[in-house]
Write a structure and sequence with these properties.
The chain has 117 residues and is mainly beta. It has helices at residues 30-36, 95-100; strands at residues 2-14, 17-19, 25-29, 43-48, 54-62, 69-72, 84-94, 104-106.
């Protein structure tokens, strides 16, 4: 049996852009992606702390070190620049494997979306 489990989370980043005219998705700084063990094209859920919205989309790799978190396309209507969001990814895995799996969670600085080491 396979189940879907929480794989990775970028906890509380600040939306830096919202681009209604882009094709769709979320653009995320490549440093954040690496730290969270996420990849371009991966399906994610975005939870908006400011208004309670939950959005599903996929990742586009942003410029490394930029701190950029941009909701694109229709999702841009669900956020405002400055909103704080949580970005979550899930994975399907064997039930027994899932019992010992440890997700990756990163806590960037919400002032600049940087990972402080």
């Amino acid at each position: 049996m396979h189940i879907e489990v929480f794989k990775s989370k970028i906890h509380r980043v600040t939306v830096t852009e919202a681009d209604l005219n882009y094709i769709g998705s979320i653009t995320i700084d490549e440093d954040l992606l690496d730290a969270a063990n996420m990849i371009e094209g991966e399906k994610v859920q975005i939870v908006n702390i400011n208004n309670g919205e939950r959005i599903e989309t996929y990742i586009i790799k942003g410029i490394r070190g930029s701190g950029n978190v941009c909701l694109n396309g229709p999702a841009a209507r669900r956020v405002a620049v400055g909103d704080v969001v949580i970005i979550i990814s899930y994975a399907t895995m064997d039930f027994e494997e899932a019992k010992s799996f440890k997700p990756t969670i990163v806590f960037p600085n919400p002032e600049n979306n940087k990972i402080e080491r």
